[in-house]
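note to self: dont lose this again. the chain is below, predicted strucutre after it. 425 aa total, dont forget to put it in the shared folder this time
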Amino acid sequence: MTEDSGLKENIVCPFCGCLCDDIGISVEGNKITENKNGCSISQARFLNHHDDRLPMDSPLKDLVKRAAEIIVKSKRLLIYGLSSTENDAHREAYKIAEEVGGVVDNTSSVCHGPTILGSQESGEPIAALAETRHRADLIIYWGSNPQFAHPRHMSRYTRAPGLYIKDGKKDRQIWVVDVRKTISAGVADRFIKITSGSDLEVISALRAIARGRILEVDSVGGLSVGELTELVEAMKSAKYGVLFFGLGLTQSKGRHRNIDAAIRLIQDMNHFTKWGMMPMRGHYNVAGANKTSTWQTGYPYAVDYARGYPRYQPGEYTAVDMLVRGEPDVVLNIAADPAAHFPRGAVKHLASVPVINLDPKRNMTSLLAKVNIQTAIAGIECDGAATRMDGLPLYLKKVVDPPEGILPDRDVLRMIYEEVRRLKK
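---
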């Protein structure tokens, strides 16, 4: 049961990778009445948590048994999602995958998978959000629109004053590099427009100039050599710089090569001054899904247990690729909505196989699922742990009770795992 009604402070918001931890939630009679400090998306997340809940056509015990029976009969189980639930639920999902020799993949495979591949090749010069706020005098958002996707990122970390940055407007420069002028570019100090698909060329040109090379061209990616040289000199002159990057860099032409080049650019800059970089992670615990997968399996996503031990191969064991090839015969979807976001070929196969869907609310995937199980919302109706975009683990507090009979993902998955083991005997 939750604590008595009243104001609950320092609540972590379970929406985006910022995991804002300064939310104040007022509760009266197990009902959330106010959200202080939260952005508009956070407001909706908390105040409307009870709306549009996923219906269940049978008691939980029967749904768990039905799900386990489907999983036991599967030859190629795909477990997908995990980015909008807490870390303990991940553990139970990995146990199911290992028990039946299935594949487990998380949503990073369709967003920041290239970030992980680039980091595996070139390292991870990561910064911290608190360090950014207190020390950074030059911020670059590359292929990212934080004002839209992470509404409080700028106000909390890059415009807010810090210990060594007394005025976030006067003492800090914010640049936005993108192919079009976004709302974030509109509030930045400088907008740098590049040609679509030219990220790798522009980053490579910046690296060459930083190393003293002479470019035998007039422009790269829509920027003159003079402009590129000016950018490099400004980056070298910064006392502390941070590069934030989003899907505009990971999902455009070049993909993980873009990230590899960006990492090496930051490493080059560290010969002159202090620079770090950080991916703008979307779902609130997609970074956590990568962490827990690495802890449990040795690999961050796209893990196959078919041979009884974990194997890693992006492009072969990633959800979209498997579905397009028609491999999975059962899909266990946890806290994600692949039917709404996957390409047509993947959704076509998804609709042709039994889908077991765990989620608090209705979504496109629930419309085609054979088994729907409503679960509690982590960070609102149950506690847990999640990982912020800079790798910091934070504790998610429970603020209200879930609907009667509704359990957290971790408990439902544990029940499914135990039933699978019983049926296999």
